[in-house]
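A reminder from the course coordinator: this example appears on the midterm review sheet, so study it carefully.

Given structure:
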């Protein structure tokens, strides 16, 4: 008898590893650029109000995405294929919420709160994604999710109490929470739409829809940009090109390949990066009590969203 030999692994096994590395790289790019956005919004917000900054950022983002889309289509030799009917309508609604309303509430929140505190509030969004999945996707509400919600809510309360020195700070906390809700809703809807539309095309259409929705702020943008220093105008360009055009594209790449909850959980590092960047660039550091609340909030998000490790049996 001949001894049977073990079958060699198929050559295609290396492909997922490469794709996995690209997905991890896209997660890292998204997290770093989105973290820089909190700092950029805080810096530029001294010269442009929330509405004007929203329009400036998404308009630059739309222009950059148009160039990226054109180059990508020319390289592939394929025309741009737009979604139709209900899918197109949902993409436009998603774009108004994600690029328009999200940026508007984020910019407004940072008119009242420092960049680090805002990032801590916004990044309860992964937990909200899990809640939406329980309602909309039938994933239920396991005990870990409920415990995580309780822990995160405690952290948010600590942040609110620590930052509320007047009604304007309370408004900032509320705006930060609204931003988190918009983030979670947009991520969930985008995950549902990506199987039906190309990721880059969807990002471009969404940014364009957000730009059109923000056009009422055009007079304010023109007036304030004329009086703003060149550094603030360069800040708007940076926000439009990097945290918007590039980071939202890498986010779509990630979201197309992993679950919405895992993609949102990949941004856990954003608050820490924001605190570090705002300390180095803006000389801003949240109060120690706020940091404690932020740690509680993120711990609750982790409990609610991180998958449980399987128990190994012999």
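Designed residues:
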């Amino acid at each position: 008898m001949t001894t049977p030999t073990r079958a060699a692994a198929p050559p295609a096994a290396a492909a997922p590893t490469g794709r996995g590395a690209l997905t991890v790289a896209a997660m890292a790019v998204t997290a770093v650029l989105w973290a820089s956005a909190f700092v950029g919004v805080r810096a530029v917000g001294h010269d442009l109000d929330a509405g004007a900054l929203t329009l400036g950022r998404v308009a630059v983002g739309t222009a950059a995405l148009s160039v990226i889309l054109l180059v990508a289509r020319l390289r592939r030799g394929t025309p741009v294929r737009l979604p139709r009917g209900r899918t197109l309508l949902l993409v436009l609604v998603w774009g108004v919420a994600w690029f328009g309303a999200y940026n508007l509430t984020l910019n407004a929140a940072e008119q009242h709160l420092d960049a680090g505190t805002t990032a801590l509030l916004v990044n309860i969004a992964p937990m909200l994604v899990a809640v939406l999945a329980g309602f909309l996707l039938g994933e239920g509400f396991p005990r870990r999710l409920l415990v995580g919600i309780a822990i995160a809510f405690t952290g948010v309360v600590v942040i609110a109490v620590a930052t509320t020195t007047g009604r304007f700070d309370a408004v900032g906390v509320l705006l930060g929470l609204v931003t988190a809700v918009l983030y979670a809703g947009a991520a969930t809807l985008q995950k549902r739409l990506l199987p039906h539309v190309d990721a880059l095309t969807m990002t471009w259409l969404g940014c364009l829809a957000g730009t059109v929705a923000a056009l009422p702020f055009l007079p304010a943008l023109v007036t304030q940009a004329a009086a703003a220093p060149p550094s603030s105008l360069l800040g708007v360009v940076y926000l439009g090109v990097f945290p918007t055009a590039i980071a939202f594209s890498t986010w779509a790449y990630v979201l197309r390949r992993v679950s919405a909850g895992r993609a949102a959980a990949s941004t856990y590092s954003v608050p820490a990066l924001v605190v570090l960047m705002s300390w180095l660039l803006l000389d801003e550091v949240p109060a120690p009590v706020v940091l404690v609340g932020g740690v509680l909030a993120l711990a609750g998000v982790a409990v609610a969203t991180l998958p449980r490790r399987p128990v190994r049996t012999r």
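The CA atoms of residues 28 and 79 lie 30 Å apart. The first helix runs from residue 14 to 44.
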